[in-house]
Amino acid sequence: MAVRVQEADFDIAAELDALGALDPDVGAVVSFTGLVRGSGITAMTLEHYPGMTEKALEAIEAEAMGRWPLQGATIIHRVGELAPGARIVLVAVASRHRGAAFEAAEFLMDYLKTRAPFWKKETAEDGTARWVDARETDTSAADRWANHKNAHSHR
Amino acid sequence: MAVRVQEADFDIAAELDALGALDPDVGAVVSFTGLVRGSGITAMTLEHYPGMTEKALEAIEAEAMGRWPLQGATIIHRVGELAPGARIVLVAVASRHRGAAFEAAEFLMDYLKTRAPFWKKETAEDGTARWVDARETDTSAADRWANHKNAHSHR
Amino acid sequence: MKVLYFAWLRERIGVGSEDVDPPETVATVGDLVAWLAAREARYAAAFEDISAIKVAVDQEQADFDAPITGVREVALFPPVTGG
Amino acid sequence: MKVLYFAWLRERIGVGSEDVDPPETVATVGDLVAWLAAREARYAAAFEDISAIKVAVDQEQADFDAPITGVREVALFPPVTGG
Which residues on chain D are in Cβ contact (under 8 Å) with A34? Predict the structure, then answer.
């Protein structure tokens, strides 16, 4: 399974090229990259639950592979201390058509945001640190997939 | 405007890094890469309408920038003869949040597919060439944005 | 006025663009297509199924009702298939 | 049984994980939380708003009703905020 949790940065081009090369019928590769937003903070620290994190990401990826006709999916999530502007997460999927690729990538992010055990702590410019609050909009974003019909899987 | 039509391949990592660096509040970069599907073909030739192509892509990009709170958008489309597996198109957008980024990237592709003057010709393994037919599903994909509410722009 | 053809329209007609000088009675894109089709068999063959043909006038999407008086270029092409 | 705490729960309790040996009457995650809260003020403070706490049992999402008999690890943490 193409799931990794790591402190190191990742090479987006290499990851997307690898997905595109999985199968000659890959026609669409969609990627999401999450970055540390820099306004007012000096660092973002990512904590996670080693062991469960990998299992959770693999379960999310397996669910996406079951729901959409994907030729591959990659999830990379960084942990540790990250600077403003740094990459936090990469989600990327390969499919024949763009509809499935867009939907699956968005599904992966919505589920990752609500089901994968990561926690963010921001350090402000005055040196104080605070844990980032979970967003209700992330929960509603994930919930909308419960009854989702894959209407556009051949787009 | 970040719109390019070119024969040369493009560097996805450089394009995505540039989008991420536009503003310290970019939190989400979504990309779509279209590849030449290789089954049964030996080449794909892209014809376009020089002059109108750039205008059409700029209009599509301007519409996306007006509809979603984006910090930037990039469209690169290749023309000329491409081999199986080659990159054809890159669409990428930067936003604070993932909901707007996903929607805008999908919108750009749906509009590009139906409004930008490109035509594909496939050369089969037996040497015969045929113009690719337009897909009804691309028209319906583009039509669904007509009355679209940007409900998830803060996701 | 310049008329441009793309993809299989270009192949069937045999040129990518040409300068034409239609009479004043040719007022719309539809009139232009009919006038071209009446000139030569290759145009008539290319324009046989008008529902399969899209139009741009001065590099903007248009339709067969669009007036052509004063325009610089009219393009005729099959539905686009890029991306 | 191993109990793990993450994010601000870990900070308030002061440890990331600990081995505990609750009595047999502690049958569910909810019982475990009540038992820990009764032991020391720092647990009671950390578990004050139970609605803000999520649960995993043996590294799978669970809830406060989940039985803990025979499980290896129980994790308590705030709602996740990755991605």
Answer: 83
Candidates A16, A102, A141; nearest CB to B33: A16
ipTM of the complex: 0.94
Task: Indicate the residue of A55, A112, A133 with minimum beta-carbon distance to D82.
Answer: A112
- Name the one residue in this structure whose structure tokens are 């054809």: B88
Among B139, B138, B153, B11, which Cα is nearest to B74's? Answer: B11
A49 close contact with D: CB closer than 8 A? yes
Provide the residue ranges of all domains of chain D, joining segments of one domain with +.
2-77
> Is residue C53 within 8 Å of C47, Cβ to Cβ?
yes
Q: pLDDT tens digits for B39-85?
A: 899 999 999 999 999 999 999 999 999 999 999 999 999 999 999 99
Q: How far apart are CA B64 and CA B91, in angstroms?
A: 12
What integer pLDDT is reported at residue B148 of this predicted model? 84
B28 forms beta bridges with: A34, B95
Q: Tally C-beta pairs within 8 A across B and C.
A: 71
User: How far, in Å, CA of D36 to CA of D18, rounded?
Assistant: 11
Q: Which CATH superfamily is domain C2-77 in?
A: Beta-grasp domain (3.10.20.30)
Nearest to D81 among A49, A51, A120 (CB): A120
Assigned CATH class of B2-135: alpha beta
CB contact under 8 A, A134 and D78: yes
Enter the pTM of the model. Answer: 0.95
Is residue D66 within 8 A of residue D29, CB to CB? The reply is: yes
Backbone angles phi, psi at A104, to 5 degrees: -65, -40
Other C-beta atoms within 10 Å of A66: how many?
8
DSSP B40: T
CA dihedral C19, C20, C21, C23 (to 10 degrees): -160
The reply to whether residue B98 touches residue A109, judged by beta carbons under 8 angstroms, is yes
